[in-house]
Protein backbone atom coordinates (compact mmCIF):
# COMPACT_ATOMS: atom_id res chain seq x y z
CA UNK A 1 0.00 0.00 0.00
CA UNK A 2 2.73 2.33 0.92
CA UNK A 3 4.39 1.71 -2.44
CA UNK A 4 1.19 2.47 -4.36
CA UNK A 5 0.62 5.58 -2.31
CA UNK A 6 4.16 6.77 -2.87
CA UNK A 7 3.85 6.11 -6.58
CA UNK A 8 0.61 8.06 -6.86
CA UNK A 9 2.12 10.83 -4.78
CA UNK A 10 5.23 10.93 -6.91
CA UNK A 11 3.30 10.88 -10.19
CA UNK A 12 0.96 13.54 -8.89
CA UNK A 13 3.87 15.84 -8.12
CA UNK A 14 5.49 15.35 -11.56
CA UNK A 15 2.40 15.87 -13.73
CA UNK A 16 2.11 19.67 -13.31
CA UNK A 17 5.87 20.06 -13.92
CA UNK A 18 5.61 18.96 -17.59
CA UNK A 19 3.45 21.86 -18.85
CA UNK A 20 5.59 24.30 -16.89
CA UNK A 21 8.77 22.92 -18.44
CA UNK A 22 7.23 22.92 -21.90
CA UNK A 23 6.07 26.49 -21.35
CA UNK A 24 9.58 27.58 -20.33
CA UNK A 25 11.09 25.85 -23.38
CA UNK A 26 8.48 27.45 -25.64
CA UNK A 27 9.21 30.89 -24.18
CA UNK A 28 12.96 30.35 -24.63
CA UNK A 29 12.68 29.33 -28.28
CA UNK A 30 10.14 32.08 -28.96
CA UNK A 31 12.47 34.66 -27.44
CA UNK A 32 15.43 33.27 -29.37
CA UNK A 33 13.53 33.34 -32.67
CA UNK A 34 12.36 36.92 -32.05
CA UNK A 35 15.93 37.95 -31.19
CA UNK A 36 17.22 36.29 -34.36
CA UNK A 37 14.54 37.96 -36.50
CA UNK A 38 15.30 41.34 -34.91
CA UNK A 39 19.02 40.95 -35.67
CA UNK A 40 18.21 39.84 -39.23
CA UNK A 41 15.87 42.81 -39.74
CA UNK A 42 18.60 45.16 -38.51
CA UNK A 43 21.14 43.65 -40.93
CA UNK A 44 18.72 44.17 -43.83
CA UNK A 45 17.11 47.49 -42.94
CA UNK A 46 20.18 49.44 -41.85
CA UNK A 47 22.11 49.19 -45.18
CA UNK A 48 18.90 49.87 -47.10
CA UNK A 49 18.04 52.91 -44.99
CA UNK A 50 21.65 54.07 -45.09
CA UNK A 51 21.71 54.14 -48.90
CA UNK A 52 18.33 55.90 -49.20
CA UNK A 53 19.12 58.54 -46.54
CA UNK A 54 22.61 59.13 -47.95
CA UNK A 55 20.96 59.93 -51.29
CA UNK A 56 19.45 63.05 -49.68
CA UNK A 57 22.69 64.21 -48.00
CA UNK A 58 25.35 66.58 -49.29
CA UNK A 59 28.82 65.26 -50.15
CA UNK A 60 30.33 67.01 -47.12
CA UNK A 61 27.78 65.40 -44.74
CA UNK A 62 28.49 61.95 -46.20
CA UNK A 63 32.24 62.36 -45.76
CA UNK A 64 31.96 63.94 -42.30
CA UNK A 65 29.69 61.28 -40.77
CA UNK A 66 29.23 58.48 -43.30
CA UNK A 67 27.34 56.02 -41.04
CA UNK A 68 24.78 58.52 -39.76
CA UNK A 69 21.10 58.02 -40.58
CA UNK A 70 20.28 61.69 -40.00
CA UNK A 71 20.54 63.81 -43.18
CA UNK A 72 21.73 67.40 -43.12
CA UNK A 73 18.88 68.31 -45.47
CA UNK A 74 16.90 67.06 -48.44
CA UNK A 75 19.12 67.55 -51.49
CA UNK A 76 16.77 66.46 -54.28
CA UNK A 77 19.23 67.82 -56.84
CA UNK A 78 21.28 64.65 -56.23
CA UNK A 79 18.65 62.65 -58.10
CA UNK A 80 18.46 65.02 -61.08
CA UNK A 81 22.25 65.10 -61.31
CA UNK A 82 22.49 61.29 -61.15
CA UNK A 83 19.72 60.91 -63.72
CA UNK A 84 21.44 63.28 -66.16
CA UNK A 85 25.11 62.45 -65.63
CA UNK A 86 24.48 58.72 -65.23
CA UNK A 87 22.27 58.62 -68.36
CA UNK A 88 19.60 56.78 -66.40
CA UNK A 89 16.92 57.29 -69.05
CA UNK A 90 18.93 55.20 -71.52
CA UNK A 91 19.89 52.67 -68.83
CA UNK A 92 16.28 52.17 -67.73
CA UNK A 93 15.10 51.82 -71.35
CA UNK A 94 17.74 49.19 -72.18
CA UNK A 95 17.06 47.31 -68.94
CA UNK A 96 13.30 47.22 -69.47
CA UNK A 97 13.73 46.00 -73.08
CA UNK A 98 16.09 43.20 -72.01
CA UNK A 99 14.05 42.35 -68.90
CA UNK A 100 10.75 42.28 -70.79
CA UNK A 101 12.08 39.96 -73.47
CA UNK A 102 14.10 37.83 -71.06
CA UNK A 103 11.36 37.22 -68.48
CA UNK A 104 8.63 36.67 -71.12
CA UNK A 105 10.65 34.09 -73.04
CA UNK A 106 11.88 32.42 -69.86
CA UNK A 107 8.34 32.04 -68.52
CA UNK A 108 6.95 30.77 -71.84
CA UNK A 109 9.71 28.26 -72.62
CA UNK A 110 10.25 27.24 -69.00
CA UNK A 111 6.58 26.55 -68.28
CA UNK A 112 6.16 24.62 -71.56
CA UNK A 113 9.23 22.47 -70.86
CA UNK A 114 8.20 21.86 -67.25
CA UNK A 115 4.66 20.93 -68.29
CA UNK A 116 5.80 18.36 -70.86
CA UNK A 117 8.37 16.87 -68.49
CA UNK A 118 5.87 16.68 -65.62
CA UNK A 119 2.76 15.45 -67.45
CA UNK A 120 4.01 13.28 -70.31
CA UNK A 121 6.02 10.06 -70.06
CA UNK A 122 8.42 9.38 -72.93
CA UNK A 123 11.92 7.94 -73.36
CA UNK A 124 14.55 10.39 -72.18
CA UNK A 125 12.15 12.33 -69.93
CA UNK A 126 14.29 11.90 -66.82
CA UNK A 127 17.51 12.59 -68.75
CA UNK A 128 16.20 15.93 -70.03
CA UNK A 129 14.89 16.90 -66.59
CA UNK A 130 18.17 16.10 -64.86
CA UNK A 131 20.06 17.99 -67.57
CA UNK A 132 18.08 21.08 -66.57
CA UNK A 133 18.94 20.40 -62.92
CA UNK A 134 22.65 20.14 -63.77
CA UNK A 135 22.35 23.67 -65.16
CA UNK A 136 21.59 24.88 -61.63
CA UNK A 137 24.98 23.67 -60.41
CA UNK A 138 27.16 25.31 -63.07
CA UNK A 139 28.44 28.78 -62.05
CA UNK A 140 28.14 31.37 -64.77
CA UNK A 141 31.83 32.25 -64.32
CA UNK A 142 32.82 28.79 -65.64
CA UNK A 143 31.12 29.51 -68.96
CA UNK A 144 32.34 33.10 -69.26
CA UNK A 145 35.15 32.61 -71.79
CA UNK A 146 33.27 30.15 -74.10
CA UNK A 147 30.18 32.38 -73.92
CA UNK A 148 32.15 35.50 -74.84
CA UNK A 149 33.96 33.83 -77.74
CA UNK A 150 30.74 32.24 -79.05
CA UNK A 151 28.91 35.57 -78.91
CA UNK A 152 31.80 37.32 -80.64
CA UNK A 153 31.91 34.72 -83.45
CA UNK A 154 28.13 34.72 -83.92
CA UNK A 155 28.15 38.52 -84.06
CA UNK A 156 30.61 38.49 -86.96
CA UNK A 157 28.19 36.36 -88.98
CA UNK A 158 24.88 37.76 -87.63
CA UNK A 159 25.40 41.14 -85.90
CA UNK A 160 21.95 41.28 -84.15
CA UNK A 161 23.08 38.38 -81.94
CA UNK A 162 26.62 39.62 -81.36
CA UNK A 163 28.22 41.63 -78.57
CA UNK A 164 26.41 44.74 -77.30
CA UNK A 165 23.08 43.44 -78.62
CA UNK A 166 19.75 43.43 -76.74
CA UNK A 167 18.57 40.25 -78.50
CA UNK A 168 21.78 38.42 -77.57
CA UNK A 169 21.50 39.40 -73.89
CA UNK A 170 17.83 38.32 -73.85
CA UNK A 171 18.76 34.85 -75.12
CA UNK A 172 21.61 34.57 -72.61
CA UNK A 173 19.26 35.56 -69.77
CA UNK A 174 16.76 32.93 -70.93
CA UNK A 175 19.44 30.23 -70.91
CA UNK A 176 20.65 31.38 -67.51
CA UNK A 177 17.17 31.40 -65.92
CA UNK A 178 15.63 28.38 -67.64
CA UNK A 179 16.98 25.67 -65.31
CA UNK A 180 15.48 27.14 -62.15
CA UNK A 181 12.19 27.94 -63.91
CA UNK A 182 11.81 24.35 -65.13
CA UNK A 183 12.76 22.97 -61.71
CA UNK A 184 10.27 25.26 -59.93
CA UNK A 185 7.33 24.78 -62.33
CA UNK A 186 7.86 21.01 -62.69
CA UNK A 187 6.64 20.45 -59.13
CA UNK A 188 3.53 22.59 -59.75
CA UNK A 189 2.47 20.83 -62.95
CA UNK A 190 3.25 17.45 -61.40
CA UNK A 191 0.72 18.03 -58.60
CA UNK A 192 -2.20 19.29 -60.71
CA UNK A 193 -5.14 16.84 -60.69
CA UNK A 194 -5.36 14.38 -63.59
CA UNK A 195 -9.16 14.45 -63.49
CA UNK A 196 -9.28 18.02 -64.82
CA UNK A 197 -6.95 17.21 -67.72
CA UNK A 198 -8.89 14.04 -68.55
CA UNK A 199 -12.20 15.94 -68.50
CA UNK A 200 -10.79 18.58 -70.86
CA UNK A 201 -9.51 15.90 -73.25
CA UNK A 202 -12.91 14.16 -73.21
CA UNK A 203 -14.49 17.50 -74.13
CA UNK A 204 -12.26 17.62 -77.20
CA UNK A 205 -9.48 19.95 -76.06
CA UNK A 206 -6.19 19.59 -77.93
CA UNK A 207 -2.89 19.31 -76.06
CA UNK A 208 -2.10 22.95 -76.87
CA UNK A 209 -5.49 24.16 -75.65
CA UNK A 210 -5.24 21.96 -72.57
CA UNK A 211 -1.94 23.60 -71.66
CA UNK A 212 -2.77 27.25 -72.34
CA UNK A 213 -6.43 27.33 -71.24
CA UNK A 214 -6.62 24.72 -68.48
CA UNK A 215 -3.31 23.76 -66.90
CA UNK A 216 -1.48 27.08 -67.16
CA UNK A 217 -4.20 29.07 -65.30
CA UNK A 218 -4.24 26.40 -62.58
CA UNK A 219 -0.51 26.93 -62.07
CA UNK A 220 -0.92 30.72 -61.70
CA UNK A 221 0.50 30.93 -58.12
CA UNK A 222 3.69 29.20 -59.25
CA UNK A 223 3.91 31.34 -62.39
CA UNK A 224 3.65 34.57 -60.39
CA UNK A 225 6.30 33.42 -57.90
CA UNK A 226 8.84 32.32 -60.49
CA UNK A 227 8.16 35.46 -62.57
CA UNK A 228 9.06 37.64 -59.56
CA UNK A 229 12.21 35.60 -58.93
CA UNK A 230 13.23 35.96 -62.58
CA UNK A 231 12.55 39.71 -62.59
CA UNK A 232 14.65 40.24 -59.47
CA UNK A 233 17.43 37.93 -60.69
CA UNK A 234 17.69 39.47 -64.15
CA UNK A 235 17.33 43.03 -62.84
CA UNK A 236 20.23 42.53 -60.41
CA UNK A 237 22.39 40.60 -62.89
CA UNK A 238 25.60 42.51 -63.51
CA UNK A 239 28.25 39.97 -64.57
CA UNK A 240 26.67 38.99 -67.91
CA UNK A 241 26.05 42.60 -69.05
CA UNK A 242 29.57 43.63 -68.07
CA UNK A 243 30.96 40.63 -69.98
CA UNK A 244 28.84 40.85 -73.13
CA UNK A 245 27.38 44.35 -73.54
CA UNK A 246 30.52 46.04 -74.83
CA UNK A 247 30.92 46.77 -78.55
CA UNK A 248 33.88 45.39 -80.45
CA UNK A 249 34.36 48.91 -81.82
CA UNK A 250 35.16 51.23 -78.89
CA UNK A 251 33.73 54.20 -80.78
CA UNK A 252 30.30 52.56 -81.10
CA UNK A 253 27.46 53.37 -78.70
CA UNK A 254 27.16 51.06 -75.69
CA UNK A 255 23.74 49.54 -75.03
CA UNK A 256 24.37 49.42 -71.31
CA UNK A 257 21.80 48.16 -68.80
CA UNK A 258 21.28 49.57 -65.33
CA UNK A 259 23.80 47.31 -63.55
CA UNK A 260 26.58 48.46 -65.90
CA UNK A 261 25.64 52.10 -65.40
CA UNK A 262 25.71 51.71 -61.62
CA UNK A 263 29.10 50.02 -61.79
CA UNK A 264 30.50 52.84 -63.93
CA UNK A 265 28.98 55.39 -61.55
CA UNK A 266 30.65 53.71 -58.56
CA UNK A 267 34.05 53.37 -60.27
CA UNK A 268 34.03 56.99 -61.39
CA UNK A 269 33.65 58.15 -57.78
CA UNK A 270 37.38 57.58 -57.35
CA UNK A 271 37.95 60.57 -59.61
CA UNK A 272 34.86 62.76 -59.24
CA UNK A 273 33.80 62.35 -55.56
CA UNK A 274 30.09 62.68 -56.34
CA UNK A 275 29.05 60.40 -53.51
CA UNK A 276 25.58 61.87 -53.09
CA UNK A 277 24.91 61.37 -56.79
CA UNK A 278 26.07 57.77 -56.55
CA UNK A 279 23.72 57.05 -53.62
CA UNK A 280 20.88 58.74 -55.49
CA UNK A 281 21.56 56.48 -58.48
CA UNK A 282 21.60 53.42 -56.23
CA UNK A 283 18.26 54.45 -54.73
CA UNK A 284 16.67 54.92 -58.15
CA UNK A 285 17.96 51.49 -59.20
CA UNK A 286 16.52 49.83 -56.09
CA UNK A 287 13.06 51.38 -56.16
CA UNK A 288 11.51 49.46 -59.12
CA UNK A 289 12.47 46.02 -57.87
CA UNK A 290 11.33 46.88 -54.33
CA UNK A 291 7.98 48.09 -55.66
CA UNK A 292 7.52 44.89 -57.68
CA UNK A 293 8.34 42.69 -54.69
CA UNK A 294 6.13 44.64 -52.26
CA UNK A 295 3.24 44.68 -54.73
CA UNK A 296 3.37 40.93 -55.35
CA UNK A 297 4.67 39.63 -52.01
CA UNK A 298 1.35 37.92 -51.19
CA UNK A 299 1.37 36.10 -54.53
CA UNK A 300 5.00 35.03 -53.98
CA UNK A 301 4.17 33.65 -50.53
CA UNK A 302 1.05 31.93 -51.85
CA UNK A 303 3.03 30.33 -54.65
CA UNK A 304 5.75 29.04 -52.33
CA UNK A 305 3.37 27.71 -49.67
CA UNK A 306 1.07 26.29 -52.35
CA UNK A 307 3.93 24.32 -53.83
CA UNK A 308 4.91 23.01 -50.40
CA UNK A 309 1.39 22.06 -49.29
CA UNK A 310 0.74 20.20 -52.50
UniProtKB/TrEMBL annotation:
Q: How does it sit in the membrane?
A: Multi-pass membrane protein
**Record keywords, A-Z:** Cell membrane, Membrane, Transmembrane, Transmembrane helix, Transport
A GO biological process this protein is involved in? transmembrane transport
Domain ABC transmembrane type-1 residue range list: 92-296
InterPro entries listed in its UniProt record: MetI-like, MetI-like_sf
Chain segments annotated as transmembrane: 27-48, 91-115, 127-148, 168-189, 210-232, 275-296
Cellular localisation:
Cell membrane
A single GO CC term for this protein reads: plasma membrane
Q: Which family does it belong to?
A: Belongs to the binding-protein-dependent transport system permease family.
PANTHER family hit by this protein: ABC TRANSPORTER PERMEASE PROTEIN MG189-RELATED (PTHR43744:SF12), ABC TRANSPORTER PERMEASE PROTEIN MG189-RELATED-RELATED (PTHR43744)
Identify this protein by name. N-acetylglucosamine transport system permease protein
Amino acid sequence: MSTVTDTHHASGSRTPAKPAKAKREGAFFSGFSHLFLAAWALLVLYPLSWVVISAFKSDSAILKNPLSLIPDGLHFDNFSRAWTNGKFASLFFNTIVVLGGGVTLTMLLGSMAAYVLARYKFPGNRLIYYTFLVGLTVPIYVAAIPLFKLTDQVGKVFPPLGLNSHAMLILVYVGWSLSFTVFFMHSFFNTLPNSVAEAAMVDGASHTRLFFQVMLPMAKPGLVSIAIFNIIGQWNQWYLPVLLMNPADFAAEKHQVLAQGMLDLAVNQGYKSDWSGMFAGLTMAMVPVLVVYIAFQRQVQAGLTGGISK
